[in-house]
Amino acid sequence: MSAAIGAIVHNCEPVRMADIPCVGIEGFRTHVVERVKNGARLVALWVMPGEALRMMAVLAEDEAGICEVLLTEPGERYGALTPDCVQAHWFEREVYEQWRIVPDGHPWLKPLRFHAPWRGAGAKDAERPVPGVTDYFRVEGADIHEVAVGPVHAGIIEPGHFRFQCDGERVVHLEIELGYQHRGIERMLKGGPDARTVHYMETAAGDSTIAHTLAYCQAYEALSGCTAPPQAQVVRGLALELERLANHTGDLGALANDVAYLPTASFCGRLRGDFLNLTAAVCGSRFGRGLVRPGGVQWALDAARAEQILRRLEVIARDVRGAVELLWDTPSVLDRFEGTGRLTRAQCEEVGLVGVAARACGVARDVRYDFPTGIYRLTHVPVATYASGDVFARAYVRWIEVQRSMEAVREYLGLVAADAMQNECGKLAPDSLVVSLVEGWRGEVCHVMQTDTDGRIGGYKIVDPSFHNWFGLALAMRGEEISNFPLCNKSFNLSYCGHDL
Amino acid sequence: MIKAILERVRQGRRTVEYPAKAPEMPERFRGVPQLALQRCAERCEEAARVCPTGALTVRRNAGGGPGEATRLQMDLGRCVFCGACERASGGGAVRFTRDYRLAVRTRRALCITGGTLPRVEPLTGSVRRVLGRALTLRHVSAGGCNACEADTNVLSTIVFDLSRFGIHIAASPRHADGIIVSGPVTRNMEAALRATYDAIPAPKIVIAVGACAISGGIYRGHNETCDGVDGIVPVDLYVPGCPPHPLTILDGILRLIGRRVPA
Q1: For chain A, how many structural domains are there in total?
Q2: Residues A423 and A284 in one domain
Q3: Which of A183, A196, A284 is the closest to B225 by Cβ?
Q4: Inter-chain residue contact B82 with A289, CB threshold 8 Å
Q5: For the segment B30-48, what is each residue's pLDDT rounded down to a tens digit?
Q6: Which of B78, B23, B55 lies closest to B249 in space, CA to CA?
Q7: pLDDT of residue A205
Q8: Are A24 and A30 in contact (CB under 8 A)?
Q9: Best of B188, B197, B226, B248 to mutate (most A CBs within 10 Å, chain A)
Q10: According to the model, what pLDDT value does residue A120 have?
């Protein structure tokens, strides 16, 4: 592997901005491309607000458990990384949309979120692009037809637009166009932290409240030199695993629903809520709102409450097993799951998938194992993988993870004590940066916090796992029947708002 | 097949007893807050200061000292129920109860100074006649974070079993009697929301679910959002929360169509 030239940091290890090398754009480009070719992963590529716009790459080496941070000044245009590094594709579109810095040679430079640029002449409201109105990749031919779906979908689902190029029933190409959920979170974080900051984190992707809030709080703690008490770390781990349990269980039910296997669908629909109710037993909110805060958590768990939660968990655990194991016993379910929406390990590595989608391609990639923080430093949750890369693999990895998370929750409940839950955090260190990674239920949640000379937030990057994985869904649909889209989509179950921010 | 039947028997009936019985909310659930002006010592200002959405306001007489606050008001349309004010006020000036019945018919009713909310008045006249017995709703997520969406979606599970009340979620606005909207309405969803509303045949109703849909919530004042639904389409039912509990949503809808619910 080529040697690092940037600053090497661990997860949640602060670094002074002055210690991050800023190299010429050519050297930057070559280095990122080479590193990714040699197995590193592009975790984030973004431009920090400021007078001289600087672009930052965050590269992760999963096996070594380290990140490399590197800066460059791209100027008004530079040679795009994407032709040689697919992982940069959406990042470079984002950079162009926000800052109008042109990546020359980018193969598909079009809007990602449909907002006015953040600087320059175009930054006027009148010049907002119309959402969804843009060029779409078209396949020509007498037998080809186009199917357009969304933004409003046929259920209680977030908005997004899908454009299929089909040859009969077969999907030749799927293009996914998002941005309808764009609320402008990242820009509003500048100048913080303030009373709203933590709430932006809780609602960046509401089904991943704990994961995003935890990523923020760990970043905050790293830059303010504060640590959460051990008891708070236990409660955080507990909440993160309950979030995973609820969503994985819900997904397994929804997958069953999409192949018309209703017993598991209806059991799991209820059981998902039972897990949410356990989170509500901890903090009053089914989504963990108001629980995780910089310095710790706001709600204590005493032994009696832990005991009560454990009793409820055991009942749920039995029901989840009964509900999910029906899937593996039902030939009609397996027939629809197996071989559908298959991705290869090579595709996974090239695109840089994270989370369940990556582990279902046989790639052992899990922040809890590769970059552990908090309780995960002390107790280990084994990484669950399955190699077939299809809907079955994505379902089965979820089932293994449900069982592993259940074990973890049992363990954490045995560790609780109503000790101090929150330490006072001081001011953020000025001119510093931290990369904070958390394994949410969808995959790697990455937050990068950068402070200005006054110790306020100067720039903040949020990368939801969905940002890496939406392209994976498009790839999984190639050659599939269009009627398999709901099933494939659900097997990824990606976030619209987490992508759009 | 036999395994599925056995599992069905083992898991049993799981639908909540509501509305036959009042539900037991989680001990730490934050529902309708009680405001107590008389407990408003100097820390009431602190409680208002920590509010992330400006939902809590304190007014004092000019030159008035501690204990002379004249008005303490909470806008439940903005409140995200984080409980920060309750912690900051210390002395009990703000206290969240476990009352889940938060839905109201008018925006103004959400601004409370004590601790009581008017109950939802049922629809009347021809609207009630047309929609009261079988209600089909379309859902539009317009910048929602997927929490309001998830806790609306859950109403269709066996736990709440929405269809037992004759209420269904439709896949097309043409088949719907109204819409449920979540999210602050992003600029990028404004046109889609209008188009969906326009496509629904009259008479029709609009239900705004969550702080974002009511007031913009945490996204209020953003350049990229529209500060809620009622600047775009008229709203018939406001359901506060971040997100509202499924029972809060269900209770509001049932009251709206005049069904019997726990007092």
Answers
A1: 2
A2: yes
A3: A183
A4: yes
A5: 999 999 888 877 678 888 9
A6: B23
A7: 97
A8: no
A9: B188
A10: 78
What single letter denotes the amino acid at residue B121?
E
pLDDT score, position B60: 73
Q: Does A146 fall in a domain?
A: no
Instruction: Note whether A65 contacts B: Cβ–Cβ < 8 A.
Output: no
Q: Which CATH architecture has domain B125-256?
A: 3-Layer(aba) Sandwich (3.40)
Name residues of chain A where pLDDT drops below 50: none
Q: Find the CB nearest A287 among B142, B180, B243.
A: B243
Contact state of A497 with B143 under an 8 Å Cβ cutoff: yes
pLDDT digits (tens, 9 = 90+) for A161-190: 999 999 999 999 999 999 999 999 999 999
Asked if A286's CB is within 8 angstroms of B189's CB, the reply is no
Burial B170-187 (b: 16+ CB within 10 A, else e): beebeebbbbbbbbbbbb
At residue A122, the pLDDT reads 66
Q: Is A262 on the interface with B (CB under 8 A)?
A: no
Q: Tokens for B214, please give them.
A: 């009511």
Q: Closest Cα of chain A to B11: distance in Å?
A: 7
Q: Which has the minimum average pLDDT: A129-143, B50-64, B212-226? A: B50-64
Domain hosting A83: range is: 7-112
Is B67 a residue whose pLDDT tops 60?
no
d(CA A286, CA B29): 9
Which of A158, A207, A267 lies nearest to residue B11, judging by beta carbons? A267
Sequence spans of domains, chain B: 125-256
Tell me how far the alpha carbon of residue A458 is from its chain's centroid. 22
